[in-house]
Design brief:
It contains 16 helices and twelve strands. The protein is α/β, with parallel strands linked by helices and 517 residues long. The protein has a six-stranded parallel beta sheet, sandwiched between helices. α1 runs antiparallel to α2 and α11 packs across α12. The radius of gyration is 46 Å and the shape is globular. The N and C termini lie far apart (211 Å).
């Protein structure tokens, strides 16, 4: 009878434990779902603008599960025989688990279980351009995804929007677990991403925000508005604009901003103008072209050739006399190369008084060299590794139910929803500190050191031609001695002066040759 009673009680306890575990899993799923929903921009906000977390629901569910566990514990504590039986079963379970572990150990004593473990799923990485950034993105994301237990599949559209759409479709057909997309055309992916949403594939927009769709779950980007503020402040500092403001001096400035279809470029432009606007308003800064808005300064698709053509047009129309403004503010290192070419073609040389302050963005290898050589005033360094890891981790956290690292819930609106965003900042790089890019491992010394100035090769000294023998100098004939000027005789009296014998006048009828006898 005791054994029968113990068996019944044991069954009740096991059933209770199973129900408790099941309830806990459902609670966790509900909590994760709630967190994901609010982090996608759909949750409620407190008066301070912070997100309302779903921790209360999760905590309540966990408490309920805990209470059930305590109840079960009390039952077991009230039945010593049951406890002994359970302990015995536990011992047998431990022996069984140990035996199973022994089977996974090779004869050499190593455990191969972890090595043969299959990835949890595949994450598609869709990159837009085949450039330096894409190389960093591919490597860092792949490593981060592998560390999270997933497999990465990288595809690069190399600037082809249609190709990228087909690559996304391939990933959907392969039933990837998530998509990380750096869009070629941020406005052209709504339809294909609706398909991803139907398949319940989460989408992380990377670097540029995908527009006009609710299918974007998160966004990873640089905080370009803050970076724009930093660029503006550096211009104020390097040009001593506050001093110029007091002295009523003015400087000219022109802008070459980023692509109008890139929201990050818009935030960058706005950030710069937030700082410089007061100087434009009071005349300390003068933009002769009048191009001081994002609409009038943006360069579509970051085209370097378009930036060059725009600058040439502005200089021809507004700077025919000065040749160049005092400041040229750009949103991309690639634009600075074109600026330098235009200026050099106009006969303006780096280091001269006419050479303007030029700003860059990106800290590309060539740009850092230009900074070191004094051709570029400064550029902004954004750690691409940090951004790539952050974007990959967002996907992993979403898939594993962890809290996604979102730093901004307010300003990234894609036209349909405000997208929760992971952001990175930047650092200003100029001639005084560019070596930090070597110290942090971004570049090697050889990659960014200034090019040595070429020493002109000496021209060959022409062999001297034979010196002709000098002709004999002719002997000078003796210069005859000058006869002395006769001394004037004493002035004679009128009576002493003989009468002048004039030429006789011939007599009439005779010639001058007739002679008298």
């Amino acid at each position: 009878m005791k054994k029968k009673t113990a068996g019944i009680l044991l069954g009740v306890m096991v059933s209770s434990m199973l129900l408790s575990a099941c309830g806990s899993n459902k609670a966790k799923e509900a909590a994760n779902e709630s967190v994901q929903v609010e982090e996608e921009g759909k949750g409620e906000r407190t008066e301070e603008g912070e997100k309302v977390e779903a921790e209360e629901t999760a905590e309540a569910s966990d408490t309920s599960a805990s209470d059930t566990g305590d109840s079960d514990g009390n039952v077991s504590e009230g039945n010593s025989s049951e406890s002994d039986t359970t302990g015995s079963d536990a011992d047998h379970s431990g022996d069984k688990a140990e035996a199973e572990n022994d089977e996974n150990v090779d004869t050499d004593g190593t455990d191969d279980t972890e090595d043969t473990e299959a990835p949890l799923g595949k994450i598609g990485i869709l990159l837009s351009q085949d450039d330096e950034n894409a190389s960093v993105d591919a490597k860092e994301m792949t490593d981060q995804i592998a560390e999270g237990g997933y497999e990465a599949e990288v595809k690069n559209a190399d600037g082809d929007a249609e190709l990228q759409i087909s690559q996304i479709q391939e990933c959907i057909d392969e039933e990837v677990s998530a998509l990380i997309i750096n869009p070629v055309d941020p406005y052209g992916l709504a339809d294909i991403l609706n398909t991803a949403k139907e398949k319940e594939i989460p989408v992380i927009s990377y670097d540029k925000l995908i527009q006009d769709t609710a299918a974007v779950n998160y966004y990873a980007s640089y905080d370009t508005r803050v970076i724009g503020n930093e660029i503006g402040k550096e211009i104020v500092k390097k040009m001593s604009l506050d001093k110029a403001q007091e002295e009523k001096k003015s400087y000219t400035i022109e802008f070459l901003m980023g692509s109008p279809d890139d929201n990050g470029a818009l935030f960058l432009c706005n950030g710069i103008l937030e700082v410089l606007q007061e100087y434009l308003d009071d005349g300390t800064l003068v933009c002769k072209s009048g191009n001081t808005t994002f609409d009038t300064t943006g360069i579509m698709r970051w085209s370097e050739s378009s930036a060059k053509a725009k600058l040439e047009s502005v200089l021809d129309e507004f700077y025919a006399e000065e040749k160049t403004p005092d400041i040229i503010c750009t949103a991309y290192d690639g634009f600075t190369y074109e600026v330098q070419d235009v200026l050099k073609s106009a006969g303006i040389l780096p280091g001269s008084e006419e050479w303007p302050l030029i700003t860059g963005y990106g800290s590309e290898v060539q740009a850092v060299k230009d900074v070191a050589e004094g051709e570029l005033s400064f550029t902004m360094f954004m750690d691409r590794k940090e951004l790539a890891k952050g974007g990959a981790q967002m996907a992993i956290d979403y898939l594993t139910g962890e809290k996604v690292d979102v730093k901004d819930y307010s300003q990234y609106d894609n036209g349909v929803k405000i997208v929760g965003t992971f952001t990175c900042t930047a650092q200003m790089i100029d001639k005084d500190n560019y070596q930090i890019l070597v110290d942090n491992g971004t570049y090697t010394e050889n990659e960014i050191q200034p090019e040595p100035t070429e020493t002109p090769e000496p021209t060959e000294t022409p062999e001297p031609t034979e010196t002709p023998e000098p002709t004999e100098t002719p002997v000078l004939t003796e210069t005859p001695e000058l006869t002395g000027t006769p001394a004037p005789t004493e002035t004679q009296t009128a009576s002493e002066i003989p009468e002048s014998t004039g030429t006789p006048i011939p007599a009439a009828g005779k010639s001058a040759d007739d002679k008298t006898v």
